[in-house]
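Quick one: structure tokens for this chain, please?
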Amino acid sequence: MHYDSENRTLPHNPLKALVAPRPIGWISAMNKQGHVNLSPYSYFNAVATGPDMVMFSSFGRKDAMTFAEEGGEFVCNFATYGLREAMNATSAPLARGDSEFVAAGLTPVPSRKVRPPRVAESPAALECRWLQTVPLTPLDGSEASHFLVIGQVVSIYVDDAFVKDGRVDTGAMHPLLRGGYFDYFSVTDEARFELKRPPGAGQ
């Protein structure tokens, strides 16, 4: 079976089901007027270390992206299985000025080095300064409808309960991950295993 834009041999595009499960960037951002937006993005990941950088991709110029550009900062809050309903609630289209924090029953608390607040209920957060937004222009040269937002991590918050022997216990936080269609996944400690790289490949 082959699927592409010309041979639609499935009723739904399988891309999101195959590039999965994906971490969720639960982005809080603030514009110059102090308005805050909180939105989940399943096109999200780390892209560099030393300096640490992350990215999220927005379909259209939505508030999280425009606020990050205008305010120059954003926060990636860690989405967990226990916060799945609240995370989902923050994806609802609210009227301008209405708070996703209030609508989802979440608590904004001050970040350490950036103006946008983090989600108090989340066990971890990456505080970021906006670096650039890259329009994702398709092969046909048509106007970009997706935009890649890149930020540099300037501070990391982790709940002490999830730090053991100097390492973050990711599985204990039960991260929430996005699949295709309406599918989500979660990870637990029991699912974790270690693999050491071959000699010379770096650790």
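The chain has four helices and 14 strands.
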